[in-house]
Amino acid sequence: MERVGILRMPLGNLQSVWNALHVSGFDPEYVDEQSDFDHLTHLIIPGVGHFKAVMDHLVSKGLPDKITRFAQSGRPTLGICVGMQLLGKSSNEGGVNSAGLGLVDAVVTRLPDDGQVLPHVGWSTVDLKRDHPVTQGLKQGRDYYFVHSYGMKAGSEDIVIGTTTYGSDFVSIVGKGNVVGFQFHPEKSQSNGLHLITNFALWDGQC
Amino acid sequence: MLKKRIIPIQLLNNGRLVKSIDFGNFRDVGDPVKSSSVYNSQYADELMLLNVSREKRSIADLLQIIVKISEVSFMPLAIGGGISSPDDAALLIRNGADKIVVNSVAYRDLNVITETSNRFGAQAVIVGIDVRWDADLDDYRLYSRCGSAAENVGLEQHIARVVAAGAGEIMVQSIDRDGSMQGFDLDAISRAMTASPTPVIGAGGSGNYESLKDAFITTGVSALACGSLFNFSDSNPLRAKAYLSNHGLNFKKV
């Protein structure tokens, strides 16, 4: 049986992620720096807030090593929103360059704000660019719920699973091996979001 | 491009859902958790839950109910009614709310808006503004405390203040149209949109799909909130969007 761990974060609403897994038939658990990750089959890194503040929190708890070891073991690892951005190499949120976990070859930069209101909040379309086990069964061009001001740019095309346009294009689904990230909130995106969560929780990490 | 939104408004009075006319005259319309589950399966774009109980101006009832609603509803959830401090707001957000709606407190203490906006982002703060046309004043008069207390500030001035304080969305609600099912107050919505750099939600008066079409097309507003339309008639968000899509309006695809 799947043992899905949700990493406790300092800010925001983790319960929605837990509820989304629970209603889809899984028995998730919250994990933190005290937890043993060895028994987990899947790890979810949610995240709301400032990239650097969230990363500083992880570093202060010794979590980057723990997350990286989990991902390197080949078990499915998912980042949501800022949790996805943390998978990248760096972000310049707030004008400072901060290092991320470096699990995918990507950087995070501010979305263009000429003529666009930031943050980007609301339902926007994800264009699926290539097949991935986690997006299996989803139709092309569906809408998901976004809340963010910064977006991911990929260093190589092969990790771009989905893109979204808001002012400019950014990566809305990233995937590298057993690591995947969603910029939108699947737990707030109704049936298509729950479909993604279910696919992730049933995924063996192979592409 | 962002999609237009239809937001069912659910009014809470002592744990039950009610619908008002002219901000009074409550009629019981059911159980908030069940109806939230139904709205989720009808692909509403967001849900709004407002506590209108005159006796209990605290967030205790809201806290109890959002935990249950967030178990059955997987879309953004906005909660308000009786929020009076940044701690109230933070508690609701930690327990399942994505956005909070403040109204009366915005006339007295802008700090609730500023602190919540700094902590959780501007998108987490909706300021509700209740307006009634005042013939003597020849202008809209703004009301706080569920429509019972007149305020001495103009619509544009109040919007400028709350946006400067950090509000991420403005909901302008017509008290005259509330529960009337006679259509939205297009003039109030247009004026709010001109005054506000952030998105506006129009509320009060939804009666049929035609009234939604008029409001969306005439004003270009990004979201409309509906009570009576979904409480009392055989209509729902799915059907509303099917009709509106055929008139060129763009909604999320599921």
| Percent of residues in beta strands of chain A | 25-35%
CATH topology of chain A: Rossmann fold
Total beta strand runs of chain A: 13
Work out the strand percent of chain B. Answer: 25-35%
Low-confidence stretches of chain A: none
At the fourth CATH level, what is the homologous superfamily of chain B?
Aldolase class I
Distance between the termini of chain A: 20 Å
Given this structure, which CATH class of chain B is correct?
A: Alpha Beta
The radius of gyration of chain A is 15 Å
Biggest sheet record of chain A: 9 strands, mixed
Distance between the termini of chain B: 16 Å
Biggest sheet strand line-up of chain B: 1-4-5-6-7-10-11-12
Radius of gyration of chain B equals 17 Å
Instruction: Provide the low-confidence segments of chain B as ranges.
Output: none
* SSE ordering of chain A: EHEEHHEHEEEEEEEEEH
What CATH architecture of chain B would you give?
Answer: Alpha-Beta Barrel
Net shape of chain B: globular
Instruction: Indicate the structural class of chain B.
Output: alpha/beta
Largest sheet of chain B: 8 strands, parallel, barrel
How many distinct helices of chain B? 9
